[in-house]
Amino acid sequence: MRCTVCRGQAVIDIPRHHSAFCRDHFFEHFRSQVRRAIREWDMLAPGQRVLVAVSGGKDSLALWDVLLDLGYQADGLYLDLGIGDYSCRSLEACQRFAQEHGATLHVVAVEERYGLPVPQLARANRRATCAVCGTTKRYTFNRTARQLGYDVLATGHNLDDEAAALLGNLLHWNVDYLARQAPVLPARDGLVKRIKPLYRLGERETAAYAVLRRIDYVVDECPHAVGAKELLYKEALNLIERQSPGSKQSLLFGFLEKGRQFFGIYEPPPLRPCAECGEPTTAQVCAQCRLVRRAREAVAALKPLRRDAPADGEEER
After folding, report:
1. How many domains does the chain have?
2. 120: which residues sit within 8 A by CB, 6+ positions away?
């Protein structure tokens, strides 16, 4: 397999582009796709501070790496979800990356911030862990970025992620989600601008970039992601992609260029400050505050001792 550019030994082929690249030209391809995404969607302006939400996985660390390589003022934010050994290894990967690159990493622990780790927040609310995790991430990312004075929040969503999300929204005709699915969500009423600079690059490309750049990342998926619908949609799209290279790109890019306009009549509901925390919400009290309140009530209900229970320090007879 030869590099399309220089005819040297290729390290990766990209069937949807009918191309293969050596190490150096693959890096140039990767950077050019990120630059194009930033330029075409007006993601970042010179001098803006960007906060990269990092999980310790290949996508978010590859994004942080390429933004630093392109000269952006990019810092990292790791949200410790409190998922046992998985969270410990993920935090260590982010800390190693920050140390090796002389970059700033902010760490927020869910248990310290909200009283319980994400799995226990989910159990206390009798909700799926992934749903509670998503709510907590969105809330904490935005709040932290705003409090620390960042202009933009960047996430490592790649082409596979965005195509799978689009497929799911189309299957269920989630019109509101379809109306706002884009590589950029503009800032408004207390919400920091959110960008997805990797949306033109597939998961296989971000993995190759991380390996070739010698980024030490966590390979394992979150243990709570088993059975998630997004993985099913990815598997279905991978099957189609193997038979028809470029299908994911055609689905996503076609929607962004031709289909999204038909959902433009959607107007996002007005936001107001949450009565408890002041963060933007469509309700009187935001979803995160409701999650935390219900969890505290559930924990409090378990604390009172039985009347006949021994006091601390006494032995039960």
Report:
1. 1
2. 82, 295
